[in-house]
Amino acid sequence: MAELPDRETCVELLSRMSLIRRFEEEAGRQYQRAKAGGFLHLAIGEEATIVGTTSAMRDDDYLIGTYRTHGHALARGTAAESVMAELFGKSGGTSGGRGGSMHIFDAEKRFMGGYGIVGGNLPLAAGFALASQYREEDTVTVCMFGDGASNTGNFGETMNLAALWSLPVVFLVENNLYGMGTGIERHSAVTDLSRKAEGYGISGERIDGMDVLEVRDRVAAHLEIVRNEGRPTLVEASNYRYRGHSAADPEIYRDKEEVEEWRQKDPIENFSKRLMEDGVLEESDIDAIRETADEIVIKAVEFADNSPEPSLESLYDELYVVGETMGWYAVDERSPEPHRGEYGKDAPALAKELAESGAEYSGDDEDEDQTRPGVRR
Question: What is the DSSP string of 225-242?
Answer without folding.
Answer: HHHHH---EEEEEE---S
